Each structure stands twice: as structure tokens, then as C-alpha cells.
Amino acid sequence: MDQTVVGDELKDLWDTVGWCVVDGVIPPDDLAAAQQDLPDLFPTAQEFAEDKDPERNLPFRTASDAVLPRFPFASAALNHLVLHDAIIDLAERFLGTADIRLYQGMVSAKYSNGAPDYEQLLHADYANHTLVVPRSDPGYQQIEMFIYLSDVTAETAATRIVSRPLTQDIPVERTYLALDEYADLYAAEEPASGPAGSVLVYRPDVYHRGTRLTAKEAARYLLHVAYKPLGADWLGYQSWPAAAEGLAWNRFMKRATVRQLTMLGFPEPGHRYWTEETLAGVAARYPLLDMTPWRDQMGQRR
Ligand SMILES: [Fe+2]
Fold first, then answer.
1. Which of 36, 43, 44, 189 has the CB geometry, 3.0–4.6 Å to 160, for a possible disulfide?
2. Which domains, and CATH codes, for the chain?
3. 42 alpha carbon to ligand 1 midpoint, in Å?
């Protein structure tokens, strides 16, 4: 994606209201490949509605984030979307810097018919994405994204969002907004609707809330992806090394690009970490990773 796709209009929305839905970010083939892998992870809308496999459905009858599959996934197609060039381009554009890192990658499903009550209070996400409070200038700002894997409408649980100008006077430490005290903001919320392949981007200081599906026998699938600037150690959610012993990580490494690995904190080609010894060791750890880009830049260390 270049700047003509995320034009000035969307960037202005990001800077002023704090969120927008960007259409057509994920190319159709990449979207279809990811959608094809979803039934391995989640019941389909029909399977859930008919309760074909009650034991499998059980975790999805709770609203807990603890059951959400996390990157690296067994699905190469889902991994590819979390670190898709179009997603990285988009994050760089909104954050105003190319020095960024992935800090969250999860996939979720929501259902109608017998699902839990997904209705949330309006809240800001920063409370569990940073140790401090958000700053909204380049080098400090983080970006949260929902990559829509199914069409998302007001009836299929589009996140409800309140634009920043309406909430700018709320004290920053107030991360949850009570229904009675902020009834005007609940009345002003907008559904972040968009077709599959579009991406909701929002700042962690934007008040929003999850809702239930009102459509019958429906499901909503999306990837939760977040990026932060390099060096902002107070921002985070997941740890990649903690997953690096697993089969999914080792499968991911077979196809990973230099750009994708850099987003995960893997030392870039030319980084001072690389020596003859570490190069040989990493090549032995990941026999199918093509180390050529790292080997080629051994003479140009930073
Ligand atoms: Fe949230």
C-alpha cells in the first residue's frame, strides 16, 4: 500500500477523530486463504447455531480473551495477514515512522444464538496496552487494528466507537465510562462497519465497546493486530520469544521475510548482533530460513 491508498483524508481522521475504517487493505486471494483456515480454529456460524459439537463450542460461550488463538498461528495464511506488507505499510503511515514493531496478534470469533453477552462499557484500551498513558505524536503513538475476516455490520457486532473530539475532556485515567454518567456518548457512538478485507484502525485513547450480534445464525471473525514504535518498551501485550519453541513458530520461520522478522524484533541484516558465530548458530536453529540477506550484510554492521 502506498500513500495514495491511505490518503491524507484518512490520515487526518486518524489524527483528529482517532479512528477510521480503511477499505480493501487485504488483497482478495490473501483474504480467501485466511478465511479457508478459520474452520480449523473456530466453529462456523452454522455449526455454532446448531450446536453440532457442544464441547468445541463451549469456550466460545464465554467472552474471555484467554481463549483467543495467538500469533504465531498454525495457519500460515493468518500469520501472513498479521505481518502483511499492506498492514505494515498502513501502520507506518499512521504512526509516522518506519521504525515499528508488532506487539499483538490474536484472532477472535463472535456468534449469535447462545453466545455470551458481548455488550461492553465504553472504554479505552490503553490500560492493558501500556504501563503509562498514551501520547499521540510520532515515536510514541501505538496503533490497534482489527482486520475484518468477515463482513462486519451494525448487526454483526461492529465495534461502537466515539470520536475523540467528543471525549477529549474526560480525565485520562478514566478508562471505563458508566452508562448513566455518559449517556450522551453512548448515544453518539458509531458502528465501525466494513466488508471483509477492510481494517479498522484506532488509537488506544479512543473510547469504544464490543457489542452482541443481532443478526441470526451469524458469526464475526477478525484479527486483532497492534504495532508500536521501536524502543517504546512501556507498550506491549504479547512476547514473541515465549512462543519460539513451538511448532507454529518454526513453521512460520520457513516462509518469513526479513521485513516480517524485523517487525518481531529479530535483528535486522547489518545489526551488531550478527557475528560469524551467531549467523552459524541461527542458521542451525532454523535450517529452512534463507540467511542470505543477513550473511550479505555482515560487512556493513551497525
Ligand atoms: Fe477494547
1. 189
2. 8-238 (2.60.120.620)
3. 21
